[in-house]
């Protein structure tokens, strides 16, 4: 019942491009079990699979069209930005097994990090504090603190 109600409210309050107040979206997410800090902005067309597996710190911005497929927990620390059309994906399949088994692993975005536009973050990845994943990057490995990654697959560009 909870999942069905979430799907209805998500389709009304999150998925349309309507400029609804962010604090309304935050309030609804909290009612569904998300742990969300102060000063969080959630723009339109944000697709969150399971709010009860989402933790967001203070002063975080989630841009238009972001997808959070949180079959496992997703944690976003304080002072982070997840830009337009980024995709945080905690699930994949074992194509090498006959049953195509589902594999889920959590994603952590540490404080002060920026996941820029159209970045894909794979299951099990940790983005280190004060790091940036450049636009369009595909991130399959952990990103160390104070690092910029770019490309497909993402490679280290610089360390601050």
TrEMBL record:
UniProt keyword terms in alphabetical order: Transferase
Look up the coiled coil feature and give its residue ranges: none
Chaperone recorded as keyword: no
Q: Which domain of life is it from?
A: Bacteria
Which Gene3D superfamilies has this protein been placed in?
Hexapeptide repeat proteins
Q: Which InterPro entries match?
A: Hexapeptide_acetyltransf (IPR051159), Trimer_LpxA-like_sf (IPR011004)
Query: What is stated as this protein's family in its record?
Result: Belongs to the transferase hexapeptide repeat family.
Q: What is this protein called?
A: Colanic acid biosynthesis acetyltransferase WcaF
Q: Which organism is it from?
A: Neorhodopirellula lusitana
């Amino acid at each position: 019942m909870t999942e069905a109600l979430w799907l209805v409210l998500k389709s009304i309050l999150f998925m349309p491009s309507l400029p609804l107040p962010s604090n309304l979206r935050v309030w609804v997410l909290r009612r569904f079990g998300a742990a969300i800090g102060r000063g969080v902005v959630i723009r339109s067309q944000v697709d969150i699979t399971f709010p009860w597996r989402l933790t967001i710190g203070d002063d975080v911005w989630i841009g238009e069209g972001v997808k959070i497929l949180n079959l496992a927990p997703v944690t976003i620390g304080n002072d982070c930005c997840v830009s337009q059309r980024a995709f945080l994906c905690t699930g994949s399949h074992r194509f090498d097994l006959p049953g195509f088994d589902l594999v889920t692993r959590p994603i952590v975005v540490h404080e002060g990090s920026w996941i820029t536009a159209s970045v894909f973050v794979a299951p099990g990845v940790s983005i280190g504090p004060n790091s940036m994943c450049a636009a369009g990057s595909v991130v399959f490995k952990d990103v160390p603190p104070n690092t910029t990654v770019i490309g497909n697959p993402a490679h280290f560009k610089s360390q601050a």
